[in-house]
Amino acid sequence: MCSPSFYSVIILKNIGLIELKLHKIVQNLELEMLRIFPYDTEGVDQAIADFEDEFTIKFPEKYKKFLLKYNGGNSLQTSFSINRKTSDIRAFYGFNKASQYNNFQYLIDNGFLEEVLERGFIPIAKDSFGNSILLGVTDKNFNQLAFFDHEGQLVQHLEINFEDWVAKIKSKKKKIRTIEERIADMRSVGSKKEITPRLKTIWQEEIDRYAGREQVIVRL
């Protein structure tokens, strides 16, 4: 007959295995989530109110929550595939302290916001090729997503709402490497690419852009 201590060991081992499996499940789930480098959220609540008043629209609640919590942000190595449409996402637009080209004010100043509003949408994100993700703000398309092809000026309806779309976006965890780390990585794989002063400048610009910013998992 086995002693109580024997059963205790078995139970502890099983608990350990369960905890390990749960940890792996959580890790896998996090790999499937949207990650961004958010912008400073100072003054975003008032900026949203002013924007809604100026253009006589209302943001969907989940999107408003996203802006209040993150104020948009950069999204590196991020992509989605929905209804036969696949694209990467470079950034989500924000207010106030969002970077210049990812700022709603930039969209206003360049006339793009007005152009998209005439179609019943606002732009909320962009890909690497200048295309935009649009969010419906009329009774007919409220909280529905669409893809705007800037070359063909075409709007493709994605038939999904904002929160479900966010749940389908996948991002890789991104570490902003130092110049030294990049050079070491190139040497480790035998890269013969010349490391020019211009290349180092480009690297440094990226490093400076993300200095002091933490990549976070988006949770609505």
Automatic annotation (TrEMBL):
Name of the protein described by the UniProt record: Knr4/Smi1-like domain-containing protein
Pfam families hit by this protein: SMI1_KNR4
SMART domains attached to this UniProt entry: SMI1_KNR4
InterPro entries linked to this entry: Knr4/Smi1-like_dom (IPR018958), Knr4/Smi1-like_sf (IPR037883)
Signal sequence extent: none
Domain Knr4/Smi1-like positions: 43-168
